């Protein structure tokens, strides 16, 4: 998806960081106006970003992150794969020069061997990928770093031939054997399967308003997976779960997924569909709130997928349309381009999320109610209300004369309906999502004669 253009530019490196250990950022350096690595490390420490992905292994950058606690992914370029595959000594030298001197002060966590190699039509390089990874793993083991630092490779979404609905996600059969071997390596070494899902590109190929809302985590009617019957309310979850289904279908359920890149440009050329400040802020802001909520995806509930935002800075020397140089979150003077909710002091949504009832592993025995998050607009609440009452629940109590009609305002009526739908649809965390405008509470909202359904009252 994002692949073609990215191959060309991302050869240097990209760091990532996040305020939760599952939020990271890509630190690409194809720019002539970028802040120093030291200033960058300080910037990340001031945010909720806790991991950074570099596309290469620049020692100056790796050193700048020493003693910051920030986890670091480093990378090996596609062109280095043949050498690493054929010569174990080269792999050993690479580890001895790029990893050993810096670890553990610099918290290197993963080495990505190549970027989207399987989406290039280069059978020779594809054949050499796993041997290169194996030689690097052996070199790490020899340096006593096996298990502490993992080895993986980054895939584009193009490894799937089928992704819709998510439960039918399957890998391209022409690279099936190779993927099975790579997943076997992931499974044996405990390293993650890394992918680059871009709802932005999905929207560009289907630029309808309802697709935009689905891609931006905004209120939408959702898409029911005809196989699993799960209703998806955002494209990110759908794309990640399609990968999950494909991995599971290979019999490797234990392999974890990492999102190595995802993002949305805030600016583009006139002819480009999708880039805008508003859309970029909605995508990244809602994605970060989604990750911080730890709701997870329908197939991986209760835990956020480790996700590296693309990207920390604009890279002004990348070729292509304006959007390619406009994925940044921060300006060269370290100010925010827009507020994506990355501040360390978590914002209203994440505070609400920290109530016990919203902990990652939902406790079905504990009573919980689904209510709107603080700050959700009346317009959004109205959409939630209309949506919930359209799903066959009994909205009689919020009609005139009903026990929950007063106070007669959209917030009160939406809360009643959202909770009722949550209770009726199975009380799973994703039933209380409403495009990231809802949260669970352990406080019973019932009042007077108005009773909010909970698990105890069924
Ligand atoms: C995955 O790894 C586990 C633990 O090493 C092993 O027991 C299992 O057989 C592996 N599964 C596959 C399909 O390779
Ligand atoms: C509710 O949750 C709390 C905290 O997780 C736990 O200690 C308690 O046992 C739970 N109550 C029930 C009825 O499961």
UniProtKB/TrEMBL annotation:
First and last residue of the signal peptide: 1-19
Catalytic activity: Hydrolysis of (1->3)-beta-D-glucosidic linkages in (1->3)-beta-D-glucans
Cell compartment(s), UniProt: Secreted
GO CC terms, sorted: extracellular region
Biological process annotations from GO: carbohydrate metabolic process
Pfam families in the record: Glyco_hydro_17 (PF00332), X8 (PF07983)
Keyword field contains Hydrolase: yes
Superkingdom of this protein's organism: Eukaryota
GO molecular function: glucan endo-1,3-beta-D-glucosidase activity
SMART domains in UniProt: X8
The protein's Enzyme Commission number: 3.2.1.39
Keywords: Disulfide bond, Glycosidase, Hydrolase, Secreted, Signal
Region spans: Disordered: 347-367
Top EC class of this enzyme: hydrolase
Residue ranges occupied by any X8 domain in the UniProt entry: 368-452
PANTHER family per the UniProt record, alphabetical: GLUCAN ENDO-1,3-BETA-GLUCOSIDASE BG1-RELATED-RELATED
Family, similarity comment: Belongs to the glycosyl hydrolase 17 family.
The protein's name: glucan endo-1,3-beta-D-glucosidase
Organism of provenance: Handroanthus impetiginosus
């Amino acid at each position: 998806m994002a692949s073609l253009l990215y191959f060309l530019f991302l050869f240097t490196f990209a760091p990532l960081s996040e305020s939760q250990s599952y939020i990271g950022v890509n630190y690409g350096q194809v720019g002539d106006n970028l802040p120093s690595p030291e200033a960058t490390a300080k910037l990340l420490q001031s945010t909720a970003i806790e991991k950074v992905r570099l596309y290469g292994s620049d020692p100056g950058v790796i050193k700048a992150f020493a003693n910051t606690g920030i986890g670091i992914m480093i990378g090996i370029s596609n062109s280095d794969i043949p050498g690493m595959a054929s010569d174990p000594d080269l792999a050993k030298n690479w580890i001895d020069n790029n990893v050993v001197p810096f670890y553990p002060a610099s918290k290197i966590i993963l080495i990505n061997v190549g970027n989207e190699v399987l989406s290039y039509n280069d059978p020779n390089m594809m054949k050499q990928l796993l041997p290169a990874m194996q030689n690097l793993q052996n070199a790490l083991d020899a340096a006593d770093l096996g298990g502490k630092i993992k080895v993986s490779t980054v895939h584009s979404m193009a490894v799937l031939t089928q992704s819709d609905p998510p439960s039918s996600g399957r890998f391209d059969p022409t690279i099936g054997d190779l993927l099975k071997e790579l997943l076997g390596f992931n499974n044996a070494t405990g390293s993650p399967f890394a992918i680059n899902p871009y709802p932005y590109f999905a929207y560009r190929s289907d630029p309808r308003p309802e697709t935009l809302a689905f891609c931006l985590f905004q209120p939408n009617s959702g898409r029911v997976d005809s196989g699993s019957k799960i209703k998806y309310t955002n494209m990110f979850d759908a794309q990640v779960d399609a990968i999950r289904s494909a991995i599971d279908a290979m019999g490797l359920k234990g392999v974890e997924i990492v999102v190595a890149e995802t993002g949305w440009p805030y600016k583009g050329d006139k002819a480009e569909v999708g880039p805008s400040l508003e859309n970029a802020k909605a995508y990244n802001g809602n994605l970060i709130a989604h990750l911080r909520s730890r709701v997870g995806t329908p197939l991986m509930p209760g835990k956020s997928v480790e996700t590296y935002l693309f990207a920390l800075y604009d890279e002004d020397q990348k070729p292509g349309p304006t959007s390619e140089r406009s994925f940044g979150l921060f300006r060269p003077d370290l100010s925010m381009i827009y507020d994506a909710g990355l501040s360390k002091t978590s914002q209203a949504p994440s505070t609400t999320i920290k109530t016990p009832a919203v902990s990652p592993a939902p406790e079905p025995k504990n009573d919980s109610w689904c209510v709107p998050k603080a700050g959700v607009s009346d317009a959004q609440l109205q959409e939630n209300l209309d949506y919930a009452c359209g799903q066959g629940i009994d909205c009689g109590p919020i009609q005139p004369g009903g026990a929950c009609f007063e106070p007669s305002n959209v917030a009160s009526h939406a809360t009643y309906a959202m909770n009722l739908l949550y209770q009726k649809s199975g009380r799973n965390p994703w039933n209380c999502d409403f495009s990231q405008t809802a949260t669970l509470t352990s406080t019973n909202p019932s009042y007077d004669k108005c009773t909010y359904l909970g698990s105890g009252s069924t």
